[in-house]
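User: Can you help me understand a structure? I only have the sequence.
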Amino acid sequence: MFVGIDVGTSLVKAAAFDRAGRQLAVEARPVHLDVRRGAVEQEMREVYAAVVGVLRVLTGRLEEPVELAGLTGQGDGVWLVDGAGRPVRPAMSWMDGRAHELVDQWLADGTFEAVFRRTGSAVFPGCPGPLLAWLDRHEPKSLDAAAAAVSCKDMVFQRLTGAGRAVTDVSDASMPFLDPRTRTYDNGVVELLGLTHRRGLLPPVGDPIATGEAGGEGLPAGTPLANGPYDLPACALGAGVTAPGDGLLIVGTCLASLVATDELDLTGEPAGLYISTDRPGHWLRAMPAMVGTAALDWVLRTTGARHEELDDLLVSAPPGAHGVRVLPYFAPSGERAPFVAPGLRAELLGVSLESTPAHLVRATCEGIGYAARHCLEAAGLTGSLAVCGGGTRSLGWTGLLADVLGRPLRVVEGEVGARGAVLAAAERYGVPLDAGEWTRPARIVEPDPGRAAYYAKGYAEHLELLATARERARG
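Assistant: Let's start by predicting it. Here is the structure, written out as tokens:
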């Protein structure tokens, strides 16, 4: 029996799999996000308690012992911990927008581009570099009290295993300090961001991913546990996206586009990042847009519609939503892929007294699809495309995405991140698993040729509207 742990932004999950990759059981527990005036934080004690809780319930249901466990979780943000992995202050989420003025400054003075040319990481307000720089200016005592600035899963790994010191992995270290060629921290980037005097807070990089034994909280004592990769590359593993050119679209809270590659290209418009993987010379070109299902959640909530009505709402509005358009950039910290625009905000266009909730909902789903197409093109998609995430539970939206993207979609169901975490752990521990069986898609969704042609024109119009909106955001 194998267990995958996925510590998400709003939901902590643990899933059990048999040796053939069949998902046997899942336990989940929500965790709270404190959102106020651009700040987005989480209480680490609550997150860790949720991890222990779901593991305790899940393992209590299993009839066989746990052979090994893999751990993944949300990336970016800053989780300041003491030497025992306990919180120094609430975690700053990847959605936090307080460092946007710093990013604006770095965009203007060339620091932003200089960092990208060195590491392939386009910094955004919620990634560790800007957040640490913000803390250094506004809360230096928090940094003084911390032993390490880690990511979510690293805190959980240290607590579950009782490890003597914090450790991260190459995937979480990729943004923004890791040199993707040497797989070590680039001290030049640390200096560019004004953080040389805080260099000691960056945790050692486990390469390959660190392993340890569970201490008995949630998992049985002695259970082998592997730390990583974080959720985006874990989902790529769980979806079988490993061949260069193949891609993955994660339709979750964050709309993440990933394309496997064996080439580094640090030219062009700085955006997204290169995520290092456990395979040297192999990366994921990532364009993680800030808002995915969160945009749809807002529109459903605002119109008074329910998630259960989504498919019916999509059917009751035609392609193009009678002229209603949504630029789905709802995040308080703006956008980070396939461009960085901290001041960009969502726009609803073409709305009139004749517009219905169905028009707004369909336009939002179309807008998210256009944003996904933009990201996938920028990431270099040339091969097959897998999709996963909560958004794919809607058959109507999945079909709409196939039409907007103009390509077949390999739909991967279940706890894809947890599945990838187990595959990474099995590789680390030398446990042979059939990756092809573990990552087999549940179904293939083909686009409708007529609607795909219609949306190809709509995508060109989306790019024109976006260019104008970006100009306004810069002003």
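Now, to help you interpret it: The longest strand covers residues 23-30. The chain has 16 helices and 24 strands. Let me know which part you'd like to focus on.
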